[in-house]
Amino acid sequence: MPEKQAVGASGQNERSLFKMLSFVMLWVATLFSSLSLSMFMFTQSWYVVQDLGFEAALGVVLISLSVPRIIFMMVGGVLSDRKDQARIMFWSDLSRAILALMLVFEFVFVHPLPIWMLVVNAVLFGTLGGIFDPARDSILPVVVDSELLTRANSVIQGTMQVALFSGPLLAGIMLGVAGYRGTFVLVSACLFIAALCVYFVRTQKAGIVQAEVSAGFWQHLKDGFSYLWDSALLKALFIISVVVNFFLSGPLFMGLPIFVEGVLKGSAIDYSFVQGALTFGMIIGSILMGVINLRRKRGSYALFLMATQAVFVLILSQSNTLWMAAGAIIFVGLLIPSINIPLVSMIQEYTDKDKIGRIMSLIRTASFGLTPLSYAAASFILSLGVPIQSILFWSAFPLMISVACLFVSFPVLRKAD
């Protein structure tokens, strides 16, 4: 049974979230699962560059991890609406733990590892991770009350940010102490812990999926997209997610090292400082969302913060000192979860329980799937000789225009709580 409690005063809200065993287990599982992903990516990347000396092949390995993960999010979304999400997460974590252990044995018996082995492991790891993500997104409304969804999402998202930031640091320490085998043993241990925790998460799927259980995969996916597009609110939230990811991810995440090196004339230490400022801002934003637990006018709030984010991107593009850039990037990072968390909570609340997995997977797939296109677009414009500060400057305007268009075209969005 879902471990929901009566919601009273705000003080009771704050205490009740971590009194729910299922949520606590989900939170711990998210921490260790996210740690494992960041450590896996870092360790494989370092091995390709440092030990194999195949810098040119690094992109192939990373694509082999990310593309299957994006594609199989849709599969995971359909499965999450038909099966118990906790069990999907359990088998995903357990399978990846076994996969990491297999890598340990490969390092024992095969040295150096051929690049094709790393590609195959990356494909399998990404595929299993893609199935995990929509199950995690769709399980929260089953585990906690709707009044606590924003706070629960802020805790989960903040935990993921901390794990993705600290995972490479932990992997780097382990590589120095125990080598590749020891590091992949740690990755496997994290996933075993995550699987054990998620095993104790209790959901209630009986009666939810029986009406559609006979339909095929593509019919389920088509029904999910039709449901999303027929809802003005969900369609607006979908468009926001796509716009923000496309116009922000490429210019910002790919352009940041270029900006630091070319515009600020900074070093690797300066880049790590600016990158740390972005991560720090994202963590602070997640914490603030948990403390505020926004419940009213979340649509209007998201539109306002999108416009504010565009302003800080403009400020970043005009920065000529490290401190000015770091200050701007902190606020850009802070606004990323401040926009995403309320929107995700709204999607979870306003979507029928038997379709949350598909809706979340469609939105995640569209968002993450556009990230490589955003990188490609930014790379192409850079190849034309356009400076990175100009790309950052002009990327802010589509965000502002989108805010105005969404505000006028979707009144349901600005009125929605």
UniProtKB/TrEMBL annotation:
Q: List the membrane topology term(s).
A: Multi-pass membrane protein
Q: What is its main location?
A: membrane
- Pfam families the UniProt entry points to: MFS_1 (PF07690)
- Transmembrane in keyword set: yes
Key words, A-Z: Cell membrane, Membrane, Transmembrane, Transmembrane helix
Transmembrane domains' residue ranges: 21-42, 54-76, 88-109, 183-201, 236-260, 272-292, 299-316, 322-344, 365-385, 391-413
Where in the cell does this protein reside? Answer: Cell membrane
Under the heading InterPro entries, the entry gives: MFS, MFS_trans_sf
Which protein is depicted? MFS transporter
What organism, scientifically named, is this protein from?
Halobacillus amylolyticus
